[in-house]
Specification:
The structure is a single chain. This protein has 286 residues and is an alpha/beta fold. It has a single domain (2-284), classed as 3-Layer(aba) Sandwich (Rossmann fold). It has nine helices and ten strands. The protein has helices spanning 82-90, 110-124, 126-129, 143-154, 190-196, 204-209, 237-248, 263-268, 271-285; strands spanning 2-3, 7-11, 30-37, 48-54, 62-68, 94-98, 131-141, 173-177, 223-228, 253-258. Strands 1-2-10-9-8-7-5-6-4-3 form a ten-stranded mixed beta sheet, sandwiched between helices.
Length: 286
């Protein structure tokens, strides 16, 4: 455990990755492809991804990252995650920073289906972009962290894998900031009700299926969580309870608690947490 004036950093196994000598990598140049349509032609609406391709010599395969923005499942866009996407590309990741369909028009599980399609598209581009499909990670904040975590835990098999999931949705590791991990913890707030399409009493099965914390098993990929201790929108127990459940299942994980930060400030002042998260990802896939 590391404790500083800005945060408390816990690791389930050994020391946090950010403390190891090989946590950082040389920064690489990259090129950016904007506005790439990743959905099939018959999708309800075309969805775009911004793609970051690191400039690496040779023909070796590279890891990739699926990056998903927050916004309460209803707003915001990939521009919020631009600096994180850049950091990942500079570390050697092929990055797809995606938009997804929004609630309340598109309710659960439709935004998850978008992520499943994004993974299928990334796999289809693997040869052209030199992507190692066994080393794809997910990165998200707030509702984006929720969707990425749900993809990591339910996308490959089970009821949420149909009809667009499967083996192509498997993630090698996840970085999740401000994660709403258990939707039963919310007192039927508007954003969650509009995302699910009803209250907890009206749609208990959907709340269960949509809660990443309810799907943790020993087969879960490694997780890095960061969360503000003063978060009132998504209270910090969403992260601490999720981390405890990961540890109980023997899943390698780290928890970076950002002291004196709320939900928005934990994202705006995310620098050290994201750097530690990328060090964690590097440890998993390089």
């Amino acid at each position: 455990m590391l404790v500083g004036c800005g945060g408390t950093h816990l690791a389930s196994q050994g020391e946090p990755a950010a403390t190891t000598a090989d946590a950082g990598r040389d920064s690489l140049d990259f090129k950016r492809l904007e506005g790439q349509i990743y959905t099939p032609s018959d999708w309800p609406e075309p969805l775009e991804a911004n793609v970051y391709l690191p400039e690496m010599p040779g023909d070796a395969l590279r890891p990739a990252a699926l990056v998903v923005h927050g916004g309460g499942w209803q707003n915001r866009g990939p521009e919020d995650m631009r600096s994180i996407a850049r950091k990942l590309a500079e570390q050697g990741y092929v990055v797809i920073n995606i938009e997804h369909r929004k609630a309340p028009e598109y309710k659960f599980p439709k935004p998850l289906h978008d992520l499943q399609q994004a993974m299928a598209w990334l796999h289809s581009q693997a040869d052209a972009w030199r992507v190692d499909t066994q080393r794809i990670v997910g990165v998200g904040f707030s509702s984006g962290a929720h969707l990425v975590s749900l993809l990591a835990l339910t996308g490959a098999e089970g009821p949420l894998a149909e009809p667009y999931g499967g083996e192509h949705t498997r993630l090698a590791a996840v970085v999740a900031g401000g994660l709403p991990s258990d939707l039963f913890k919310f007192a039927d707030g508007r954003l969650v009700v509009e995302f699910i399409g009803g209250t907890r009493a009206e749609e208990p099965e959907a709340y269960y299926l949509a809660s990443p914390a309810r799907h943790i098993t020993p087969q879960a990929p490694p997780f890095f969580l960061f969360h503000g201790t003063w978060d009132r929108l998504v209270p910090v127990d969403h992260a601490t309870d999720f981390y405890d459940e990961l540890k109980a299942n023997g899943v390698e994980s780290e928890l970076y608690l950002q002291h004196f930060r709320g939900h928005i400030t934990s994202f705006l002042t995310r620098g050290n947490a994201v750097d530690a998260g990328i060090a964690f990802l590097n440890q998993q896939v390089f």
